Predict the 3D structure of the following.
Amino acid sequence: MAAVQEVVTEAPAIDAVPKRAMTLSAGTTLIMLALLLLVPLFVKNFIIFQLTMLLVYGLAVLALNILTGGSGQFSLGQSAFYAVGAYTSAILIENAGMNYALTLPVAGFVCFLFGFLFGLPALRLSGVYLALATFALATAMPQILKLGYFEAWTGGVQGLVVTKPDTPDIVQTVLAWFHLKMSQDMWFYYFALAVTIAIYILSVNLLRSRSGRAFMAIRDNEIAASAMGVDVALYKTLAFGVSAAITGIAGGLGAIAVQFVAPDGYTITLAISLFLGMVVGGVGWLPGSIVGSAFIIFVPNIAEGISKGLSGAVFGVILFIVIFLVPHGARQVAMVAQHLLGRLKKR
Amino acid sequence: MLSKHKLLIAAIAAGTVGLASTGSALAQKKYDTGAIDTEIKIGNIMPYSGPASAYGVIGKTEAAYFNKINAEGGINGRKINFISYDDSYSPPKAVEQARKLVESDEVLLIFNSLGTPSNSAIEKYMNAKKVPQLFVATGATKWDEPKQFPWTMGWQPSYQSEARIYAKYLIKNKPDAKIGVLYQNDDFGKDYLKGLKDGLGAKSSMIVAEEGYETSEPTIDGHIVKLKAAGADVFISITTPKFAAQAIKKLAEMNWTPLHIVSNVSSSVGGVLKPAGFENSQGILSANYGKDAADPQWNSDPGMKKFLEFLTKYYPDANKLDGSVVYGYGAAQTMVKVLQMCGDDLTRANVMKQAASLKNFAPDTLLPGITINTSPTDYAPIKQLRMERFKGEKWELFGDIISSELTN
């Protein structure tokens, strides 16, 4: 058993990512931020909704990135955490009448506990074995949500409809002075953007902190890390907890944006999509999360536009090309671009 | 002189009438987003990929049917532009696609979007936007709520109402039955089970055992053994086709011969009974509202002849034995009927008004005697069924047409 595990952990699927390379330069960050702030002002509500989903899935991919890129643990069970977060928010909003913004920290906390507890048994597993264990979690979740015992809260198989939050009166009055109006969609987009930016900053700081270094030490070499005094068990479960918490908040935001939760929305397909988003965005590169999220939202639509009957096959081909040409995903593209820009500057 | 005078008056009168009629014709042309003089845009959401992709055939059949209508000159001179998107049976994706159809493609209405979870997810949005969500492809009971959701309407008989028919039949013909129920543990199965219990009412103790199964289970044998062990002499199979066929085979293997009732979704001759073996399927009961293309008794039926002609000309790759093809044809025909009734007033409000005033409309594929009727307070287009018994290689209808309205 030990020999098998060693073989598995020895083949590093994740390249060590230097700390500095985990973020973007200040200039690029500002451009991204300006784009995210300004684009919604000029597009239709439907596209604003898509952008909101971009942020939501971006957060979920980011969470997986912390877990896999940071601490080196695989998870195919992110859809389960996402579902728990979505249901927590939905139930609190609809059954307890709680304000939507307040439900997000609760969703995050519930998922943190859930992830932390799941991390305990997962400690004994690594590599593909861990991936399988989390896979089981993802397959089980939709059925658990359907259970009769919880039906009074979860709405069982029928799911729950969530009310969309209105633009707050204060914002409306301020905008009214300038003869402007803000739609519900736009308000919620900016709300989601604020949450996303906050979590992004926290995540970057987390990975740069002592805990982040501990995560990466475990990822690079568990034995060396424990020899240096890193509490491997604690940090591994902690990584699970943090990742689950962020995924849960993303789930809560997603539930409010979509205005509906049902067990069938959180199947293993979602977990695989998130995993895919992480790989396409670049494992361990946090800004890549948004690129990965864009990939899982827009590429299926493009594939469907090319051929309705073969949309799955077209999607597969596109994915194959991407992985073949840029195996490190968006990170690689960004690195090459930065390198070229650097050369231009020198001239 | 007099005659000349008269002529003049007549001419003026004719002119005025002429003017008046052209005037009123111009005034009658009313449009909402999605309809113009030459085109009507209809949106649709189908699971072309994912776990329910077998149903994608419905969308393809509908597209083919609208092609036929367009080739024949369209509806009142307007061509149908049918825009159908894939949601992979995922509610969040359905919301995205519905918003794309309404806000980006600007369709007049969304027609026959498939799946209870997907339609539940978009129902509130569609009603807030006041865009018709017409003839949704799901048998859930909740689509008949015109007061709360005036812009959403179902099409097929609801699962609950079908289950009530079985309950009625059992109370009348086998009052001492011991019922064993096998149901799929999702919205479809639960809805049926509720209908069955409501239908049995005070006699719901007739159910001696109920077993739920998940679609991910490879086999349902264990559940059937348990139902037999519970002493059931009536076996109600609330299953989707794959599991219905498995159950029929298992019963034969065990030499268990209870009164076997199969839900309408799994009553397809080509899809269920043939694979399960005709010899194992004798005497099975079900209820139906549509004709089965695999059933030879409809070979000379004029409606089915029209259906088969349509398939050879516009959708030759279709499998005519697939119940989904028959379904899509009937639903598309209902849609066309409503648009014809709308005339030149193609506003969303009028579309709903016309959809809610269908009287005795019979698409080619419905059983003789079963018709579509709606009213502003009745948003359940098909609510009649007939019981049928499997004999030889086909279904034999028996008994009267039963209306399955929930009011009793």
User: Anything to note?
Assistant: The first helix of chain B runs from residue 2 to 28. Residues 15 and 253 of chain B are 82 Å apart (CA to CA).
